[in-house]
Amino acid sequence: MNETNERDMLRRFEEANERLSSEIARVIIGQERVVGQLLTALFAGGHCLLVGVPGLAKTLLVSTVARCINLRFSRIQFTPDLMPSDITGTEVLEQDASTGQRVFRFIEGPVFANVVLADEINRTPPKTQSALLQAMQEYRVTAAGNTYEIEKPFFVLATQNPIELEGTYPLPEAQLDRFMFDIRVDYPSELEEFRIIDTTTSIEPETPDPVLNGAEIIEIQKLIRSVPVSERVLQYAVRLIRASRDTGLPGIGQYLSWGAGPRAGQYLILGAKTIALMAGRTTPGIEDVREIALPVLRHRLVTNFHAEADGVSTDDLIGRLLDTISS
To answer: pTM here?
Structure first.
């Protein structure tokens, strides 16, 4: 990548990021960390899981992002009685008015959109949750022996309530691994909460303007993949991932049943590239990998009963990993 291309790439990316961030800020008050991580996944081409208690604007944030990037948006409200065909689509028997013959026609489900909000994804059984697996990984859906392509760009942004466990179904590990980030949505600060209540009870809500289209998103994703990465940064990501599988690592290994796989390393590097460009740099450093270690790893580490007994969370273990694996 020559110097002219680097400058042009940075300029286009910075303009897109600034426009998108400013439009989202018209609707979403605070939550800068959450918005930043969501945009990182968006530009990197990954899916996101947003975990937080009700009322923290998770659904509003996803719908706002969809409006800002001017793409087809669909919302799936997951319930215990939802069937896989309710997500992917189904074939119906129709009669051709001109010939009188009956033919099957595939009716696309809500997964055939550019931005899919899977609301409360843990409220539906694994059979239905798994209906998203092929779409998230391969950008296609197979129904009745036929395969149907999903238009790119394609993002699944799922929400999950962490405090209501009755009548819920934990996501299978295979599906969790398809999400680039597990983003934790926290309560707002006192000042942010004051502004939220003041603005939402006194004026009409803001409507964001579209600032990016699908072709521009795809171009940005290609630019990010073209960003060079030093061998030192790659080696650090590999060391971090492999350390999560080291059962002999003091203070860490005894609490883990399973560590992170190679996909975690891929997302660490893609995320680090995106963060570097957001900061105006043309190549990522180790600090960029460390910055996104939490959302990349927290849903990929499987703790055992020792961790539960000692009150050690996955976030605690990731912090220990970062302390142990120095640059």
So the answer is: 0.88
